[in-house]
Amino acid sequence: MANLELKVLSKREETNNGNTSICYICEGTLENYIKSIPDRYREYDIQRGIVKNNVYLERLTTTILEKKHIPSIVLVSMQPLEDIDKALILQEYKILDGLQRSYRMKLVYNAYQLYLEKIDKGSKEEIENKTKFKLSQELKNELKEKATDISYFWTILDFYRDRDVDRNVFQDFIQWFEVWDNLDKNEQINKMLLLNAGHKSMDMKHQLELLFLNIISDDYLKNFIRSKDINATYFYKNKNKGDLHLAHTISALIAFDKCEPILLNQKFLQELHENIDVELEQVKVFFMDNNLEKFINFSKQLDELIDNEYGKTGLEWIGRESVLIGMFAAFGKYFKIKYDKNIESLDNCFSDILEIISNNIESLKIDEFNMAKENVNIAKVNIGDLFKYSTYYYFCQILKNNQINKDWKMIFKISKGDIKNECS
């Protein structure tokens, strides 16, 4: 990809925890920016995934063609910037804010190039006389080759029906940028959360992942499926043995530490963010490489047990975040009672749990769990809370007594307060 050349308009410094970062306010042409976008620009680990349907973003084609304002795009330089005066050259960067716009800008630009090729080969009037469907069929291969879509091509065609084609629209379009130099990972995450505060609400699971990315090494991140790539519903319905969802694992480990189910909502995330130093201090030991590896191996062995007995039904069940939170809250309670949370005993704790569950795997009766939930009035009951606390109760009893004398239908009727008391 080409380097991105920008004109510096202003700059400001910012110091956080002894680290000084510089933000450059810049301008550059839209064409230079689009040509410079890295091939793997969508793989930035703190970015959310691409939002496929957004009516405001879909109007971006017309916005560009009319040369109207597009909000500034925020970039993070991945190489130190030195001797910056009136201009800077970005060789490697990541998109901190503006991923959705950038994704569509590329689609518009590619469609625009194809449009110019078509009117140069034939005539403007010739393609204007064809229907959108006809063009989509004729241009199918070219649209695929250009990595664009007929909707963008059609908007461009329609825009220029009654006006002269502006061949320099992208070259002449001045776009504003904020470019951060020497911005550490923690501040990148903080700014990502801040930048999204006024936008469409960021998925809570993605927010949770952002808050914990700093304490998970890249070597271990590859073991997880990210919420920006697959949503929770798709995950549990399509979970394979050994699949681990990062946000679910983080929620489970927080529940493990707190020894009780947690309620993942906006208030919880806000409090977590405001007290992140304290919260991380409490749970970060579980995210240290060796211990996180133990959790990963334990989770996969748990999958194996469930899959052997219940197959796809079992994997779908354990793939639910609410179920996982309830389970790990009970596991944390067991770890606290039997091992006093001694981290050196984590392997022994997990071995105990796996043995007890293996001995009681038939009593888990996941099919009955699923049948019992069909009779729940979801208008009167928070189904997520019900799953968390019912699962929490079941595993607390199994780990404490090595047996249970209640079925899921009975467990579902126990109040949250009574469950807390019985599992205390």
Describe the structure.
By secondary structure, the chain is of the alpha+beta class. The protein contains 23 helices and six strands. It has helices at 30-36, 55-58, 60-65, 99-121, 124-128, 132-138, 140-146, 150-159, 169-172, 185-195, 204-212, 218-221, 232-238, 246-258, 266-274, 276-287, 289-318, 321-339, 346-359, 366-374, 383-401, 408-412, 416-422, and strands spanning 4-16, 19-29, 73-77, 87-90, 93-97, 174-181. Helix 13 packs across helix 17 and helix 18 crosses helix 19. The model is unreliable at 43-48 and 197-201 (pLDDT under 50).
Radius of gyration: 27 Å
Terminus-to-terminus distance: 59 Å
Poorly predicted runs are: 43-48, 197-201
Label the structural class: alpha+beta
| SSE succession | EEHHHEEEHHHHHHEHHHHHHHHHHHHHH
Q: Which strand order does the major sheet show?
A: 4-1-2-6-3-5
Number of strands: 6
**Fraction of residues in helices?**
55-70%
Mean pLDDT: 85
Per DSSP, the total helix count is 23
Shape: elongated
Largest sheet: 6 strands, mixed
